[in-house]
Amino acid sequence: MAGGLLNPYWVLSLLYVLLMVETVSGARSPATGAYISPQFPASGVNLIPVVDCREVCGLNASDRCDFIRTNPDCRSDGGYLDYLEGIFCHFPPSLLPLAVTLYAFWLLYLFLILGVTAAKFFCPNLSAISTTLKLSHNVAGVTFLAFGNGAPDIFSAMVAFSDPRTAGLALGALFGAGVLVTTVVAGGIAILRPFMVASRPFLRDIIFYMVAVFLTFTALYRGKVTLAWALGYLGFYVFYVVTVVLCTWIYQWQQRRSLVYSMPATPEMLSDSEEDPVSSHTSSYDYSEEYRLLLDQETTAQILLRALNPLDSRTWRNKSVYWRALKVFKLPVEFLLLLTVPVVDPDKDDGNWKRPLNCLHLVISPLFLVLTLQSGAYGVYEIGGLFPVWAMVVIAGTALAAVTFFATSNSEPPRLHWLFAFLGFLTSALWINAAATEVVNILRSLGVVFRLSNTVLGLTLLAWGNSIGDAFSDFTLARQGYPRMAFSACFGGIIFNILVGVGLGCLLQISRGHAEVKLEPDGLLVWVLAGTLGLSLVCSLVSVPLQCFQLNKVYGCCLLLFYLTFLVVALLTEFGVIHLKSM
Question: Percent of the chain scored above 90 by pLDDT?
Fold first, then answer.
């Protein structure tokens, strides 16, 4: 039991490492306009008047490019591409619809990159780290699994909170995803497969989430997040993890007691090895030796080509046309991810050890890390004005790869193979961070073009894009007969997202020298969003126990209707149809 309570320390340690990586990667350049950190004063910035960048569409077409380039509010902080300059400086006004369409397709592809990276590279490495640290299933579920599933939301929030101009995007996305998951996803599960929800976990999770929403609502009302407030978010999540562990342990202890008292004369339960003696003998042939012989017959070049091939020809033939079309779009991303991100799989006998590829990772992964930090600024930095950092990394990585290659074999993974899981964790985290940065920059650019607030972009496009994968996963679980598991995942994931997303995102901003993080709500809409989320949680807290925790299709349809009503009200508020009367 003591070991289970100490496990959150490892989670905080990894979050601290991630915070340090994001702090370095998110360091802003001196020229950040009106929102510059006081540690980096820039001469002449105050001489330039700061105008809302959304005013650019009201100017003449010939003046828009100069406005974008000179107005500090239009500058992109971080990222590889300047989307606003691309729209207004490189596309003529007549081709503005084409530019917006291309940006929309690029946004969809970025969401695809986020999903592939999180599902196939980030989560497996987190699972391997969890196995290496010997975490229990419950702790792993509410920490590493939640982190893996919520990685796009967390990184998007961290990137958005790094700039006061896009903080509303983070709040809109976190609140919007909360409303979407607790209504559309939960309602869809109830419609697909009516079921009885586990009462105690449901009440525990919804109460914790209501407290988290109340904390965020209070922070919005105060208009700022201090260091103590940000640490309180993270501390409250640790308290949630400890509560889950304790509740699970107490439940299992009660189950064991009831089993002993109800069946005193029952012989001991069979162990896993004795439970099915037939199955243990019917497959007594050991295929591992045959697999090793096959590996020994393969050359190093063949192993490398097979490891870098993201397409299985047998799977390709058995899949539908839709799956094949989507796979074609995934292939370039998957190839680059295979080339840069090592993956450790504890379920395989060899731990997914591919000697030539893993040795190549020792060169490419660190190179990718330094070229991703601050959009490559640290990678091209020259030591002493002569030798670039990226060249030093390549030399050190090549030496380490050479030692590893000659000290290992193709068939047996080395003793320290588990360290590749941490390298893969960092590399995939920076992949997600880079994609999330581009997503935030594109959404802000689209907000400028259409004169939309960051909050409405967050609660719609960003929330939908980050939640669509989880929604399909939960619906698939429900169809397969596991609606209770899918319903539990709804609340566990969003609790992690809002507590760690706000806490870590604000802590990151404070660590850069700011005394506090200013929260400036985009008018009435953010209050409508927060109020709707709170109302949906209160309705579920009251209605579900009244139904004796039996969720049916009527309840699911009511949740879907609730979300549609909220969406209509939010859009009417955004376009000024619903507004507060001026005094």
Answer: 19
Mean pLDDT calculated for residue range 209-221: 89
- 330-372: per-residue pLDDT in tens? 999 999 999 999 999 888 888 899 999 999 999 999 999 888 8
- pLDDT reported for residue 538: 92
Q: What are phi and psi of 482, to 5 degrees?
A: -125, 60
Identify whether the C-beta of residue 26 lies closer than 8 Å to the C-beta of residue 374: yes
Separation of CA 257 from chain center: 40
Q: Give Cα separations from 10 to 148, 214, 275, 572 (angstroms).
A: 15, 28, 35, 46
How are the residues of the chain apportioned to helix, strand and coil, as percentages rounded to the nearest 5?
A: 75, 0, 25
The first and second tokens of residue 477, run together, are 């679980």
Tell me whether strands 382-383 and 550-551 are parallel, antiparallel or unpaired. unpaired
The residue among 578, 580, 575, 566 whose CA lies nearest residue 451 is 575
Tokens of 515: 């005394």
Which 3-state string (H, E, C) describes 298-354? CCHHHHHHHHHCCCCHHHHHHCCHHHHHHHHHHHHHHHHHHHHCCCCCCCCCCCCCC
Which residue in 132, 122, 115, 138 sits closest to 351, CA to CA? 132
Residue 146 pLDDT: 67
Confidence class for position 12, pLDDT limits 50, 70, 90: very low
User: Does residue 205 contact residue 506 with C-beta atoms inside 8 Å?
Assistant: no
For the segment 113-152, what is each residue's pLDDT rounded down to a tens digit?
A: 988 888 888 878 877 887 887 766 556 666 666 666 677 7
The answer to whether 477 and 187 have CB atoms below 8 angstroms apart is no
How far apart are alpha carbons 523 and 529 in whole angstroms? 11
Alpha carbon 517 to chain centroid, angstroms: 22
* Whole-angstrom distance, CA of residue 54 vs CA of residue 232: 35
Task: Give the count of beta carbons closer than 10 Å to the beta carbon of residue 572.
Answer: 14
Give CA–CA dist 372/56, Å, rounded: 31
Residue 550, H or E segment: strand 550-551
How many other β-carbons are positioned within 10 Å of the β-carbon of residue 258? 10
Summarised one tens digit per residue, pLDDT across range 528-547 is: 888 888 898 999 899 999 99
CA distances from 85 to 90, 97, 122 (A): 7, 15, 33
E-assigned strands of 50-199? Answer: 195-196
How big is the chain by its Cα radius of gyration, in Å? 26
CA atoms of 563 and 558, how far apart (whole Å)? 9
pTM of the predicted structure, to 2 decimals: 0.69
The strand pairing partners of 196, in sequence order, are: 550
